Amino acid sequence: MRQTRLRPRTGFTLLELMAVVTIISILAALAITKFGDSKRRAYLMTMQTDLRNLATTAESHFVVRNSYDGFVMPSASTGVTLTFTPKAGGYVATAVHSGIPEVTCSIDTSEDQMVPECR
Q1: Is 85 helix (H, G, I), strand (E, B) or coil?
Q2: Domain ranges of the chain
């Protein structure tokens, strides 16, 4: 009786490779979604922090001069554009980030709003 020798199996089958690619694709999709959301939150926090810094600087200027005239805005973080507009009884300050231009954060002290609100 003649014995047949089977060759040892090397490599992966097509089914095994497809299963691995599918699993990696699902994990990548979850990671990208999570990363995108954390990036947006980081942009929002950057805008809010810049507005708080601006508010602190503006209030310090007001305490010394009793006016917002001549106020020089502090430098903003990369990608953030700050605006400062004096009004009767206070000021309005806004921040926009180039990463999420559809969202604007603002402080309006003439309406007793000292915490940045983002819309």
Answers
A1: strand
A2: 14-118
Residues 6 or more apart whose CB falls under 8 angstroms from that of 19 comprise none
Q: Which two tokens stand for residue 26?
A: 């699902």
- Look up the pTM and report it: 0.74
For residues 64 and 41, give the distance between their C-alpha atoms in angstroms, rounded to a whole number: 35
Tell me the one-letter amino acid at 119: R
Q: What is the pLDDT of residues 11-44, one digit of tens each?
A: 889 999 999 999 999 999 998 888 878 999 999 9
Average pLDDT (89-117) is 92
Give pLDDT, residue 106. Answer: 96
Measured CA to CA, the distance from residue 103 to residue 110 in angstroms comes to: 22
